[in-house]
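Running this now, will post back.
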Amino acid sequence: MTTRTTQTVARFSSPFLLPGFAAPQPAGHYRVDQDEELIEVFSRLAWRRVGAFVHLPAIGMNGQTHQMVPVNPTDLNAALEKDQKQS
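Update: finished.
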């Protein structure tokens, strides 16, 4: 099966917490890697998201450690929607 990873940036204007995070993260811009697999639907090609990773800390923030935390793409989308409604 063919897979790919795409990189995006998620912008949070308020602190947020996702399942799997040890503590709430401050507002900021976060790099997100999304893993997708190729599927064929009615002779067309499409990509299905199968995983996502958020890079911590936020872009431009200093930290002693850098990590990629796996997140459920649905949880990430819900947190982004909630953040947009709050701002």
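Helices lie at 73-86. More later if anyone needs it.
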